[in-house]
Amino acid sequence: MPEMPEVQGLAQFLGSKLVPEDGPPAVVRDLQLGSFAILKTAQVTPAALAGMSFTGVGRRGKFLILSLEGVHLVLHLARAGWLRWSDAIPGTVLRPGKGPIALRLRCAEPDGYGFDITEAGTRKSAAAYLVGDPAEVPGVSRLGPEAFDVGREQFLSMLQGHRNQLKGLLRDQSFIAGIGNAYSDEILHAARLSPFTLATSLTDEQLADLYTAMHSVLETAVKAAAGKPAKELKDAKRREMKVHGRAGETCPVCGDAVREVSFADSALQYCPTCQTGGKPLADRRTSKFLK
């Protein structure tokens, strides 16, 4: 799933294309749907966007916000969605239900550029909203503060009283916006904390380490994504990962093998030496071997 750094990278890339500093803004030719399920709210019909100019591209949490003349196209790529840019997007009309393209936006001629929102797999969760104000999108209105907007004292105050496990808390979008499965693994590894540690059990030193790790991991990821075209962002993210998605590989910090805990529809990765005192965490697939 694209998380804050990748969505920030997408926003910067699209901004350079749709609202360039050295030229006029792009104008919408049409917005087509390859999947009717992707459009969740349409205060303005897709057809009404034709002829509108882009005024800005931004981000809130994991939501991509494309602003036009009084209208905002808000996109959430969910688990398997992605944005595919083309300098010469096909002029063919999308056939709903045919292929992986859920949404296509084409800009006016003569350039004919634009992008597709694609979604792999059978579980379709990507979402698009056409609204007058991004805050009208339910997922946006529930978001907590952005990680970079949270100071150290505020962060410590936010954690006080939470009985949640750190992994779940970092992924809670109402707590801090933009962190998902991948970067929560990376932050906890950098902070040398178990994903199952309760927030209430942290010492002052551990709280400070967690705050520092959150900022350093996300800052590195944002820098890695900056200036890259959409097609390169996924690979840039993978290259930066030290434990996430690297089960069975060697931890670059201590040399131990990265382990995994699987759940019904996801998994987390961690280093036992760095994070759990050398003890493997019980996994539902292998816990019978760890007793």
UniProtKB/TrEMBL annotation:
Formamidopyrimidine-DNA glycosylase catalytic domain spans which residues? Answer: 2-95
Q: Which cofactors go with this protein?
A: Zn(2+)
Name the family.
Belongs to the FPG family.
Organism domain of life = Bacteria
Q: Which UniProt keywords apply?
A: DNA damage, DNA repair, DNA-binding, Glycosidase, Hydrolase, Lyase, Metal-binding, Multifunctional enzyme, Zinc, Zinc-finger
- Name a biological process GO annotation: base-excision repair
Drop me one GO molecular function for this one.
zinc ion binding
Name this polypeptide is given: Formamidopyrimidine-DNA glycosylase
- Pfam families reported for this sequence: Fapy_DNA_glyco, H2TH, zf-FPG_IleRS
* EC number from the UniProt entry: 3.2.2.23, 4.2.99.18
Question: Which SMART domains is this protein grouped with?
Answer: Fapy_DNA_glyco (SM00898), H2TH (SM01232)
InterPro entries per the UniProt record, alphabetical = FPG_cat, FPG_N, H2TH_FPG, Ribosomal_uS13-like_H2TH, Znf_DNA_glyclase/AP_lyase, Znf_FPG/IleRS
Species this protein is from: Arthrobacter pigmenti
Instruction: Please state every residue range assigned to the domain named FPG-type.
Output: 242-276
